[in-house]
Protein 1
Amino acid sequence: MSSDEELLEALLAGEHRALARVISKIENRSPGYRDLVSEIYAHTGGADVIGITGSPGAGKSTLVDKLAETYRDRGETVGVIAIDPSSPFTGGAVLGDRIRMASTVGDMDVFVRSMSARGTLGGLSTATADAVKAMDAFGKDKIIIETVGAGQNEIDIVRTADTVAVLVPPGSGDDIQTLKAGILEIADVFVVNKADRPGSDRTVQELRDMIQLGDGGGGMSGGDGHHSQEVIDAHDDWDGEVADVEETAGWTTPIVETVATKGEGVDDLISEFANHRTYLVDSGEHAEQVRGRYAEEIRTLLREDVHALLEDRLAERGGIDDLAESVRQGETDPYSIAGELLDPVEDCLDELETEDA
């Protein structure tokens, strides 16, 4: 048995050290990682994947900590992937392993892993999606992905998470105006955290107004498939429960107020996550969601592989600098170069089609 086969066996047997090694292998793109991930696929599909995103200062890490603690109190195991900004020097996660996950320190059934965004759009690298699969195959019941909350590009989280919660801090009217063109559109649940601070009522009202106007929020642009909507009802004021809802033809997108530092509203938020999961499964949209995710993974891998192939071809032609110089001197143009480099790929595809015919 090879070392990778032993590693996979240990992962499936629930050894946390094996999980850590698998994720390191995935993140570092070590030799053999693709075969390993391929084997992992057959053992996935059992975990709920929750994305937590939003503007900086919204209290994402504290809320993730309380979510993990509450899930553990309910007897469920948790995996947390914290996507940190990439170090400009090493490409590694700047914040390291999150010391803010204080409540669950020492609990082996809460596995926390920080990962570098590695400069990819949306803060989620291909490695993150593979790490989710590793945690899923390991047997984690809940997998929480916390992102850097950088804005529009956070929409990439949709491709990895089943349910997306967008956090908005109280008194953040300007933030809402900024966010509504981006990450608010991907929310399955809105969370106004730090709800004990001044301005929370106003923030809830602004979110409600935004939803009623149909100007962003809950995927109201219709791009997500499960948010075609008409606002039917909205009720107000937080009393430890859901503060507001957007009732749609399918999913009802709630606004939940929480005070994560005190654990207030966390149970209600978890209930909304469970409700959304039930909706996705019962409506058949979960299967559609997973299909879409796999389609995007295939496209991503093809882009990566073709890019690597073309880089090799460029090197054979003397490198891209030499080609750029030939363009500068008027000997050729970028379109001609791209066509010449892709000709062998197209020829191979044509040969395969001929053989299949």
Note: The first strand starts at residue 48 and ends at 54.
Protein 2
Amino acid sequence: MLAALDDASIPVPLPDTIVTGVSSDTRRLQLGEIFVALPGDHVDGARFFRDAEQLGAAAIVTESSNDVDGIIPLVQVRDARVALSRLAATYWNNPSHELRVVGITGTDGKTTTTFLTAAVLEAGGNSTGYVSTVDLKIGRQRLSNPDRTTTPQPPELHRRLREMVDAGNTHAVVESSSHGLRLSRLNDVAYDVAVLTNVTSEHLELHGTVEQYRLDKARLFTMLGRSHDKGTERVGIVNADDPSADLFLRATAGPTLTYGTSRHADLVAQDIQQSLEGIRFKVRHDQHQEELLLPLLGAYNVYNALAAACVGLSHGMSLPAVLRALEGFPGVPGRLQRIEAGQPFGVVVDYAHTADALEKVLRTLRPATRGKLIAVFGSAGERDRAKRPAMGAVAARWADFAVLTNEDPRGEDDVAILQEIAAGAVCEGAAEGRNFALVPNREEAIHTAFQRAEAGDLVLLAGKGHETSIELSDRSLPWSEADTARALLRSLS
């Protein structure tokens, strides 16, 4: 297996041994696996050489040039992340070579577009698996994503792709984050289609600048030009309305498709109308025009649907067939997900956990709300503190009442977090008791919101979405926002 590493420096002859896998985490390392020591800002994998040796690693791959007595074999490489990707793909026999792989990247909309794309491809007769932030689909089975990572480390990713092949999937849709692209996790995925949703400013702690962030995302499109040849065209699909569109179009070596509201796009949305039923709009492609009722809330989902439609068109599906698939789309867990239990007011669960995302959701829901708009949300502990007052300010501007509560407090004082959020609301003229309440326990907070709600009101439960736990200082508390909401609604009735 180590022969797959072009730049490996192997100081001693390697013994014949059976390799049982590849891992970069000694907490999960199994006997006979190759341990790849990844560099890190806080913890360097080279610190765990002894642990890997004691656990029976078949070999250790590292960037370190330090000679460590007793570590045999120790294989030095120029880039451990690149090596991890190559070894993982090799161990699992390059499963992406046996699938048609669609990669979805962008700041917003990746998860929804992943689900929409899978639904379109399935409607076209393709057995489709996917890897997303919310969950995974292998064969016909959906599995939770407990790690919450958009792009898994290569050993996990290629294992999942191999499981898709073994389960009979012909296609895979892979949510491809900027982290995954920047950190070489996706290097050895043979993409056939690359999709851009949009690009705004995010994750600058990793990328450094907005321009570098764009370039890192554009790697997905560059990869099409050197992807494994499967005998089919490799296509780049780009949001023509995004200011960065030209960069991604130039990065694509093969054919491209564009979508948007601009008449110059290949697939164009026109006459967009929103209601509680969803979004109704006309779709034009070449000389054909069809009307679509997309059963989702939020005008931004027009773009997500167009992106998925382009994937269907790139696979030879007709426009009417693609639009029928979109009209039957059941939605994404935790993304503007309606909760119905016979209550006289509306309840929506969404993953919005930043000020921008919260504002976008509240602005989306406001026109559809006949009565009061009530928001339940918090902010994660040990994460960006600057967004907390900004979220409070957003709630004061767009919600009639807010219940501030725990999200994932971790090791921080939960009440202190809520007070930081409240400070932003107060700066906008809101007052505790009149415009917002602090209820640290999330279940009690949701109950409080439901008790305040009347017929015609709408309650937004934001921040947790599809997640399956609340992270405390010493443990993870099992959690389902949707199930909790349903149980509380039943108790009220």
Note: The two ends are 61 Å apart (CA to CA).
